[in-house]
Design a protein that fits this description.
- The strands form two sheets. The protein has a five-stranded parallel sheet with strand order 4-5-3-6-7, sandwiched between helices. Strands 1-2 form a two-stranded antiparallel sheet.
- It has 320 residues and is α/β, with parallel strands linked by helices.
- Strand 1 and strand 2 form a beta hairpin.
- The protein has one domain: Rossmann fold (3-Layer(aba) Sandwich).
- It is built from ten helices and seven strands.
- Helix 1 packs parallel to helix 7.
């Protein structure tokens, strides 16, 4: 396993980013009258700006982005696509996940930097609510792969603007695999900086993960997709240095912009979802979204957490 302490070139840049993530202050801020965990505070309040995270950016011609946001699709008949995510578990097998009625739910963003565990988080949100999450990204697979059902039979492929999903995955401009130049192009020329206002009405949940981990998962995702592994040599040399600089800048810039703009929503943490506080983190998310009924069915919560280690989209047998 690569020792993150031995990161070449861009290690100081990323360490600065990590410092901003992990620094704790005494008074957590509030979003929509909900107190944020103090780990999020310095992403907003640190005197270090996002511009300080990288010493310079490389000038060059603008590049085409390989991934685009999906446009609304016309769906003639609303199919709720009922599925049973835990049908092999005798205790949990009767719980379902399905689409809500069309146009019955407000549009919410679940945004994160790629490699932050958003698909895994969507599995848990679907588990505790019984409602599908969606994705604005084309050809994005369902977070739960049900044996015997193709992707086209699951709710994820329904129009993401249908008003029938509980929340929708949106990486915004961080979706690029081409670095800072393309990130700036998407934000300022393609209008991605306006997505939060135009598409979501400032309703959003920001998922944060330690950037020292994200830089590795992003590199795997960049070169090998959702579950593949990048070759070991991809984590060294000039191109790796550029990836480190990109993640350090864009991770913080994306987090700052969304936290500053959120009018209704919250920030959740990948690391909190791993441990014993996962139920508290999920309840806090639903509180921010004013989800009803509350509290969550304790049996649903228990089944969700018992199955959170499922391997649908995990990058297995990782050695680095």
């Amino acid at each position: 396993m690569i020792d993150s302490k031995a990161l070449p070139g861009g290690s100081m840049t990323l360490c600065l980013c990590l410092f901003r993530f992990s620094y704790f202050t005494y008074v957590p801020p509030n979003i929509n009258n909900l107190q944020l965990p103090s780990a999020a505070v310095n992403v907003v309040s640190s005197s270090t700006t996002a511009d300080n995270l990288v010493s310079s950016t490389t000038a060059g011609s603008l590049m085409e982005n390989v991934t685009s946001q999906a446009h609304p699709k016309s769906v003639k008949k609303h199919n709720k696509h009922v599925s049973y995510p835990w049908r092999d578990d005798p205790v949990c097998k009767n719980f379902t996940v399905q689409l809500a009625e069309r146009d019955s739910l407000p549009k919410w963003a679940l945004t994160s930097f790629p490699g932050s565990g958003v698909t895994w988080t969507r599995q848990m949100i679907e588990g505790i609510t019984g409602i599908y999450t969606g994705s604005v990204h084309e050809q994005d697979p369902s977070p739960v792969q049900v044996e015997g059902l193709g992707i086209d039979l699951l709710g994820i492929t329904d129009d993401p603007f249908c008003g029938c999903t509980i929340i929708d995955k949106d990486h915004e401009a961080t979706i690029t695999v081409k670095g800072l130049v393309d990130y700036f192009r998407l934000l300022h020329l393609e209008g991605y900086s306006e997505i939060f206002r135009k598409d979501y009405g400032y309703r959003g949940v920001l998922l944060l993960r330690n950037p020292m981990d994200v830089v590795f998962t992003y590199r795997h995702w960049q070169l090998a997709g959702k579950v593949g592994k990048a070759p070991l040599e991809s984590f060294q040399g000039p191109q790796w240095h550029k990836v480190v600089e990109f993640v350090a800048y864009a991770w913080a810039d994306h987090a700052i912009r969304w936290i500053e703009q959120i009018e209704k929503g919250t920030v959740i943490f990948y690391e909190q979802l791993l441990g014993q506080n996962a139920s508290i983190e999920l309840e806090r998310l639903l509180d921010a979204m004013d989800f009803k009924p509350r509290p969550v069915d304790p049996s649903r919560m228990r089944c969700t957490l018992d199955h959170r280690d499922r391997t649908d989209h995990k990058r297995l047998n990782k050695s680095w």
